Amino acid sequence: MAENISFSVALPYEAERISWPQGHESVVVAREHNTLMVAEETPLALIYNGIDYAVMMITPYDIDDFIVGFSFTEDIISSGADLRQIKITAQPDSLRADVRVNAESLRKVLARTRRPIAGRTGCGICGSDMESITNRKICGVIGQEPDANAIHKAFENLRNHQVLNKGIGMLHAAAWCLPNGHIVHMREDVGRHNALDKLIGYGLRHQLDFTQGFCFLTSRCSYEMAAKAVAAGMSAVVSLSAPTALAVRTARAAGLVLISPARTTGMYMVSPAPQDQESI
């Protein structure tokens, strides 16, 4: 496990702040030296039973949750019980995770003959072959529409729960909310899909019931975000930014309630398909 691994989540860098007053036709630029906190991203090599599988760029925090969630959403493991051991070691400017899985999970790793995935922070399926994406089996979930007041409550409290993001302003978050809108779990990462994997991993490790409540994402909801939510058995996802068309089709096919984009003034429920599309 990663309890003894210590990497900085953010680092200070000297910068020059350039600003100008608003409402003036002639712009007078002001310059001043300042310190900017910049989010760290660290390469994490994932090795399953000695086989190189992926190198993912992550925020080095809640690493165990990420490994469990990633292993699950990659369909390497079917549950946390398939994991035998996780050993994380720090290397110069990187991390290495040696993961031991059961025989069935190892067969899945061996069946994938592609080269190790180089996962960028902005993409959840980098390195995947086309067939694994287009033929990915999407299971069904029982969608439950969250109460609008609960969503509004979660929206108002979302930023206060982003502990790592305070003073940085560039980390994505995936929050788990109870049906009443109370935020009970929050995971953050420089990669939006990593944040969701961390939340899913936490849920698997602690037997969280993803049918009782909803997931709130601070990012856009693209295909892999919807697919991960469905794989975890979530009944509803709310995201701040708009969804992609493929994400909408994925959610509708699976029965996932998808509300996106969400704003303080209103939101759109794009899945299931409504009779007449209107903002809530």
UniProtKB/TrEMBL annotation:
Q: Which subcellular locations apply to this protein? A: Cytoplasm
Location of the active site: 123
Q: Is the Metal-binding keyword given for this protein? A: no
List the coiled-coil residues.
none
Going by the entry's taxonomy, the superkingdom of the source organism is recorded as Bacteria
InterPro entries membership: Cytidine_deaminase-like (IPR016193), FdhD (IPR003786)
Q: Which SUPFAM superfamilies match?
A: Cytidine deaminase-like
Keywords for this entry? Cytoplasm, Molybdenum cofactor biosynthesis
The protein's matches in PANTHER family, at most eight in alphabetical order, are given as:
FORMATE DEHYDROGENASE, SULFUR CARRIER PROTEIN FDHD
Q: What does this protein do?
A: Required for formate dehydrogenase (FDH) activity. Acts as a sulfur carrier protein that transfers sulfur from IscS to the molybdenum cofactor prior to its insertion into FDH.
Q: Which family does it belong to?
A: Belongs to the FdhD family.
State what protein this is by name.
Sulfur carrier protein FdhD
Native species of this protein?
Acetobacter oryzifermentans
